[in-house]
Amino acid sequence: MTLTDEDLELIRRELGREPNETELAMFENLWSEHCAYRSTRHLLRQLPTEADHVIVGPGDDAAVVAIDDEWAIVVGIESHNHPSYVDPYNGAATGVGGIVRDVLSMGAFPIALLDPLRFGPLDAERVPYLVDGVVRGISDYGNRIGVPTVGGELEFDPSYQRNPLVNVMCVGLVRKDEVVRGRAEEPGDVFVLIGARTGRDGIGGAAFASEELDEESEEEDRPAVQIGDPFTERLLILALRELVRRGLVKGCKDLGAAGLTCAVAEMAAEGGVGAEVDVSKVPLREEGMEPWEIMLSESQERMLIVTSPEDVDEVTEVCEKYGLEAAVVGRVTDDGYLTVRDGDEIVARVPVKFLADGAPTLDWEEEPYSYPEDVDVPEPDPEDAVEAILSSPNVSPLLREWVYRQYDHEVQGRTLVKPGHDAAVLWLQHEGLEDKALALTTDSNPRHVLIDPRVGTEGCVAEALRNIATVGARPLCLVDCLNFGSPENPRVYYQLKRSIEGLAEAARRFDVPVVGGNVSLYNEHEADGPVNPTPVVGAVGLIEGVDHLEDFPREPEEGERVIVLGETRPELGGSLYLMEYHEIKGGKVPRVRYREERRLHRLLRRIARGSCASIVRDVSTGGLLAILAEVLGKVGAEVDLSRAPGRAPRWDYLLFSESHGRAIVVTDEPDRVLELASDAGVPAEVVGEVTGDGTLRIAAGSTEIEISRERLEGWWRRPLEHLE
Amino acid sequence: MVRVAVLQFPGTNCDLEMAWAVERAGADAEFVWHEDGELADYDAVIIPGGFTYGDYVRAGAIAALSPVMDEVREFAEEGRPVLGVCNGMQILAEAGLIPGTLTVNDCNRFICDWVHLRVERADTPFTTRYEEGEVLRIPIAHAEGRYYVDEPDEVEDRVVFRFCGPNGEVDDRYNPNGSVRGITGVVNEEGNVLGMMPHPERAAHRLQGSDDGLRLFQSMVDWCRR
């Protein structure tokens, strides 16, 4: 039971009587943290959500943002963390299904998925099984529905061992005049349930997502995990597209958390009307389901649309073409109540606005904490430290490739910049927008956020926007997926509040609206405590004029120069180096210097769009060393980082600092790049040259390292041993 | 104008980009839903990729039994070009329109990657704009793309595409899925039905990373115009 005594009292007072079992179950799920954002609703109000091009901001199934006079993108992000721990394959697969339906329900056609994933250490019990299951789940589902998975993240930390984070972002396209809202407005209209039949799977999923995991979760909570059927989802995509094109959809919602109850209640509450549902009309997968089970089932691949009674036959006909069932399960009323019937019998009747929006917010106690800024970092053996960072699963490009090779990232033929770069780029040629493309990324740096929740979160936004700038995109909007532990833990609530403040601050300072998001709390297991605070930031950018993307980015060639842009600072706090190698929690977390950062983004766009580089990449986890190895390790290069802009007191600061506001460029036109940098006011230096001999030589202060391609690939391959 | 039917089954999901590629090659592409299958008026038929009927059985097995495949068979018997890509190849193989079968990749995982292909025959309706021995860069994306045939010698002259290295070298290093002799594109005896696992429609414009696939569609359109 997730309802508090105060909640129950409030419900009694509002109803003027005791709620019955069905009503209680409905309240329990709709008033759960997962559905009602009870601990964060009031905090999220500080996010800037508006801009001229934002058509639909937070609050509906997904956001809608205009890209020109005719077209808009639809974007949403979700988490499927708890289900993916209990049943990694189905948990991850249905996470994909859910967010795709959120995008569908706005009338859009889905064109891209991104999956930020976080797990415990690969050598820990059950973790390889979780990684394999989650990746196969995403692969089987995403590939079958024909939506390319083009990006995401992959991170490992002990805090995720028994509570992996499986987030998923989806982007779709819609004509502005075909946008559908999650709203029922006209009494007399009917609710039509489309798609799969309703069964007992996933009952109580919303409530399950709002509790911590424990030893028994693996067995006990299995029934709360849904099973996915991507084939039906594909048919839903096609059917919805046809229904929308024919103008038959007056309102639409995905049936996700809290199933039919949530979809009907939110649509009626949003439109200021009432609704009546007859559970005896719902096509069932199994016999003997109770009304509350039918109302709360989270069976997948179902959508609820609102349509005029005279259009029902045409709706049914379209669905039949795609082999989908369509059933009228209720109607829109004008009484402001949600009435649930089982044939003639009324089994629940509650004020719909109260059910959908009446959950009181919860302001938990917070306990500020901090880690020491001044820490003593012992000088390590360079060989040892370099090997440790480059063989970390948090760096290995081969491990990432192992994942995205299993995703169809090319389907729809739009993927101009493939996975493995800072941002993916999707071409809009099928919409007749041959000169436009979207840049997509998701980013989080939970280590930074742990040490300094506010500053760390600002950094996540800076990194996401930097990533889309590397391919020449201008930011359109941000979405966020906040994965935290229990808000009832005062330190976690402190993290959450500071993190949201940081997100709001950064979005304001960069002038990019946060158009939607998701909050996932209670990410903790009794054995491990809370996960590292993980605010995942998704960014969507627009590229107008796509010619620069021909043959960019490409493999660097012998003779090209390596340029570092932006200052390296002694900011090791929360770095992979300090946290993973030294196991030191503390130090100065990289700060976002907004003016410098914005200048850099402008410069990156100019370099990318000016076709004067083979590679433009941002510097983040693992510092300059990790990105230089990734970009130049195979071809070979000679680099002297002592020449890089900025100041670092020692070679390890130079190699491993994760200061923001930096990027590397590989180019055969170094003078032009330096000139652009100078015009933009960004410090830039040529630090080396591509040699083509397959060996990476890096000088940094007092130390020099030399890494052959074979050795590097051996390090990168190391984490894979647990998976193959 | 050359008219090309792009066949849609439930679960087809590469139809959009297939039609786009066909149009780039200068033909009209029209979607034909499997139940509406009237193919007689078209110059060529393409079965695009996807997961027909979810591919919960064997890839392509259910679609191969669907009534529209009888029409495809007739269409092919008249000598008109039929192209099956990825799941389309699996369907053609299941329907017996091309030799051999496709089974689970030897790594037992889905693979999405860019590969090189060697053109083994430049005399089919789909390959006249290529040269024999030419190396193409085209992506693959499949879980069941491992080509198998009992007697590889017997299909040797039907092989149109083979996995290879950047310089055309055919060996295990460049065979992503364990296909016998690296075979990944074959024609029927008459040469007018081609099944291939790689996706030429995803390499039909330089922005996509390669336009090597475009000439396949252009060859087909040339042939239809003849």
Overview features:
heterodimer; A: 724 residues; alpha+beta; globular; B: alpha/beta; 9-stranded mixed β-sheet; 11 strands
Instruction: Tell me the β content of chain B.
Output: 25-35%
Number of helices of chain B: 5
Question: Mean of the pLDDT scores of chain A?
Answer: 95
Task: Work out the helicity level of chain A.
Answer: 25-40%
Written account of the structure:
- The complex is a heterodimer of chains A (724) and B (226).
- Chain A is an alpha+beta fold and 724 residues long.
- Chain A has 25 helices and 28 strands.
- In chain A, strands 8-10-7-11-9-12-13 form a seven-stranded mixed sheet. In chain A, strands 23-25-22-26-24-27-28 form a seven-stranded mixed sheet, with helices on both faces. In chain A, strands 1-2-3-6-4-5 form a six-stranded mixed sheet.
- The longest helix of chain A has 21 residues, at 490-510.
- Chain B has 226 residues and is an alpha/beta fold.
- Chain B contains five helices and eleven strands, in the order βαββαβαββββαβββα.
- A nine-stranded mixed sheet of chain B has the order 2-1-3-4-11-10-9-6-7, with helices on both faces.
- Chain B is globular and about 45 Å long.
Give a brief description.
The complex is a heterodimer of chains A (724) and B (226). Helix content of chain A is 34%, strand content 24%.
List the helices and strands and how they pair.
The complex is a heterodimer of chains A (724) and B (226).
Chain A: H1 5-15, H2 21-30, H3 33-36, H4 41-44, E1 54-56, E2 63-66, E3 71-79, H5 81-86, H6 88-104, E4 109-119, H7 127-145, E5 149-156, E6 165-175, E7 190-195, H8 205-208, H9 217-220, H10 230-245, E8 251-254, H11 259-271, E9 274-278, H12 291-296, E10 302-307, H13 312-321, E11 325-333, E12 337-342, E13 345-351, H14 352-357, H15 382-390, H16 397-404, E14 415-417, E15 424-428, E16 433-443, H17 446-451, H18 453-469, E17 474-483, H19 490-510, E18 514-520, E19 524-525, E20 529-530, E21 534-544, E22 561-565, H20 576-581, H21 594-609, E23 615-618, H22 623-632, E24 637-640, H23 651-656, E25 663-667, H24 670-680, E26 684-690, E27 695-700, E28 703-708, H25 709-717
Parallel strand pairs in A: 4-5, 9-12, 17-18, 24-27
Antiparallel strand pairs in A: 1-2, 2-3, 3-6, 4-6, 7-10, 7-11, 8-10, 9-11, 12-13, 14-15, 15-16, 16-21, 17-21, 19-20, 22-25, 22-26, 23-25, 24-26, 27-28
Chain B: E1 3-8, H1 15-24, E2 28-33, E3 44-47, H2 68-77, E4 82-85, H3 87-94, E5 101-103, E6 111-119, E7 135-142, E8 146-148, H4 152-155, E9 159-164, E10 183-187, E11 193-196, H5 214-225
